[in-house]
Write a structure and sequence with these properties.
Helices cover about 35% and strands about 20% of the residues. The chain is an alpha+beta fold. The protein has a domain of about 120 residues. Helix 1 packs across helix 3. The chain is globular. It starts with 19 loop residues before the first strand and ends with a helix. The chain binds zinc ion. The site of zinc ion has 8 residues, from helix 1.
Length: about 170
């Protein structure tokens, strides 16, 4: 079964699910996870199409460094419109190493009320990989809360399972 062909082009060999594909596009380093069934070339082309449709207006490379136009992001997505574009844009930012679904080692804008201000969509919540992005984003999003707020760098995350496991051991 190692010679399954790509569903899309039907000529190259399909990549394995979960396999990471890395490439450079317009000086940006992109890391995409293959969902399986598609060849590297098609994964890359699909990503570039998605970038052009959903992200091009918000991202630039300034002297070799990736820059997200967070004011533009706020303006477009504040009203809860363009949900599909927002989700696509978030996953592009994950592929470019700007946002992460992992909390550990990353940054979060936190209010004194119980709500984080980080980018979010229907089911997903994202953390900033770089402090500068969290700082800029917090200045734009502070209007969303009546509470005071601050930015946290998350050094340790303990899963629910681990906490309950510890609890069980203490109880023994
Ligand atoms: Zn293909």
């Amino acid at each position: 079964m190692s010679d399954n062909l790509c569903y899309n082009c039907k000529k190259n060999r399909a990549g394995k699910p979960g396999h990471m594909t890395s490439f450079v596009f317009q000086m940006m380093e992109v890391n995409v996870c293959n969902i399986g069934g598609f060849c590297i070339e098609c994964v890359k082309n699909e990503w570039i199409d998605n970038f052009k449709r959903n992200a091009e207006d918000f991202i630039s490379v300034v002297s070799g460094k990736l820059k997200v136009d967070w004011p533009e992001y706020s303006k477009h997505f504040k009203m809860g419109r363009f949900h599909d574009q927002k989700e696509s844009f978030h996953s592009i930012l994950v592929n470019l190493g700007i946002l992460s679904r992992e909390a550990k080692g990353n940054w979060e804008v936190v209010t004194y009320g119980p709500i984080g201000l980080n980018p979010r969509a229907h089911m997903a919540y994202f953390y900033f990989i770089h402090k500068e992005d969290a700082v800029e984003f917090s200045r734009l999003e502070k209007a969303r809360t009546a509470f005071g707020w601050e930015i946290h760098h998350i050094d340790e995350v303990i899963s629910e399972e681990e906490v309950l496991e510890v609890n069980n051991k203490v109880a023994e």
